[in-house]
Specification:
two-stranded antiparallel sheet, 2 strands, alpha+beta, 4 helices
């Protein structure tokens, strides 16, 4: 007997509540790692970056490409510069390193 993929069933699987819950669980792991390695800085804004991580989830795509997702974001004004660095500050790659650690 040969396996035959059922697109309707597959779509239901990829958007099911348990799949969304798993994406949120994984995103929370990435968030926890990012918070653990986030630089704190100095001065009146010390710790703002570390406190600005959040997790969101949902269903992306349309039709046959619908998938559950979990997303980690940081809405601090300096997040881009912390991640990628500037001419005067080194890149920390906090989100990238947290995601890399989650792949192990």
């Amino acid at each position: 007997m040969a396996f035959r993929w059922d697109y309707k069933g597959g779509g239901e699987l990829l958007t099911a509540d348990f799949m969304r819950a798993e994406m949120v669980r994984r995103a929370n792991q990435v968030k926890a790692r990012a918070e653990a390695i986030a630089p704190v800085g100095e001065g009146p804004t010390a710790g703002d970056y570390k406190r600005s991580f959040s997790v969101s989830s949902g269903i992306r795509g349309r039709g046959r490409s619908r998938r559950a997702y979990g997303r980690v974001t940081n809405d601090d004004h300096a997040a881009f510069y912390v991640e990628y660095g500037t001419r005067n500050n080194p890149r920390h790659r906090t989100m990238g390193r947290a995601l890399d650690a989650a792949k192990d």
